[in-house]
Amino acid sequence: MKLKYIIVAVFSFGLFYSCSEEDLDPTLSQDKSIETSINTVNDLQSVIYGAYNRMSLTEYYGRDIIILGEIFSDNVYSNANSNRFVVEGKMDLNSESGIVDDLWSQLYAVIGSSNVVINAEDIEGDEAVINHFKGEAYAIRALAHFNLVEFYGQQNVNGGGETAQGVPYVTKFRDEESLFPARNTVGEVKQMAYDDLDMALSLMSEDLNDPTKEYITTFAVQAIKSRIANYFEDWDISLAAAETIVQSGNYDIAGKDDFLTSFSTDGEKAAIFEIANTPTDNPGINGLANIYQEGSYGDVVVLPNLASIYEEGDVRGIGGIITEYESGALRNTGKYPSTAPYEDNIAVIRYAEVVLLYAEALLETGNTSEALIWLNKIPSQRGASTYSTATKDNILLERRKELAFEGFRFHDLARTGMDIPAPDSVQQAHGGPAYGSYNFALPIPFAEVDANGNIDQNEGY
């Protein structure tokens, strides 16, 4: 199925928002023109809520994008308890692997919903509110395209860089002039994401930021911008965006005593943007707690090498975020802790990440002393020793400690040009691919390549 029809198939549902993926599929009564169905600000709100809902599903932030970022690294491995993430743990996927197609399709579904909002015209209602919703849609579109290029772009394969093939940057819903979109370069995807984020900031108002943290705010836009700039080493951009957040005074780093409960407390002050989860959203056996924790499933287990980097007393290590069971297995039980109905919100951007983005950007722009101050704000709140110097290695180490199990580790290894470490030859099935290997990008789904002659398959597949 070519990309255009992936989008159409999942967005002909009209204006109805639901927490059920099945309810978002088209029905005869709902299969009507999106362009003529959005007339009021409430209509617009319904569609943007649908975009957020799609972000929450298993194929995106509900599970897969997080687990892939961990299983492709040196943080965790699959024990094949229910035979999930085994092939992913080997980094042995192909163009017909289900997760390859599901992730691609879901991200473009989110983008399609965003484009409906962005391109809606003649909407009745408060202009500032309409613009704020459109700004949220621009930010969602930027984030989804960035996530796509992280996983499917060729920037980390054979030194591809920003001139390598990225992904199609889709800006219209049902674009009859581009039914078979070609892949933009990685650099083009980056710039278009920046442009979308700048547009978001020009449309949104801080006064209209939702206090629940469950919708993108102006500060979340800045955080996304800093994250993207950090990935591409645009340090001045990353620094300015992160600085807006840290100087706002709106966020705090959770203290040691509050850190564990912060992952089961919705909308707390250490959160910038998180995906809402309610009992109605129950993902069943696909819930993150079911993947990480011991039980009937529990396929993803912590590697001893990760547990060993935490000092005794560090709330992120054993006895805190990590639990050591009688079997000797090490498990993430502190992040995404609630089992059925899995009602913990899922953090997309935490303030602690922004603090580390800021420290790295300060270091890379020559302000080493200030970088050290901000770097040490994290371990000082975790029961861990602080650092005597701010170095790239120390910042990456602290990122590994702080952001473990949240899907960042693989991308940190990739963006810094490192081989994937393989400290456990028994448990780690991927063997530690060297930087530049074809494994540093997923294959483009077969269905997409087969239908769209303008899209080439990635190297090695």
Automatic annotation (TrEMBL):
Residues 335-461 form the RagB/SusD domain. It comes from Salegentibacter echinorum. Residues 29-228 form the SusD-like N-terminal domain. Pfam families: SusD-like_3, SusD_RagB. This is RagB/SusD domain-containing protein. It comes from the Bacteria. Transmembrane segments: none annotated. One of its GO terms (cellular component) is cell outer membrane. It is found in: Cell outer membrane.
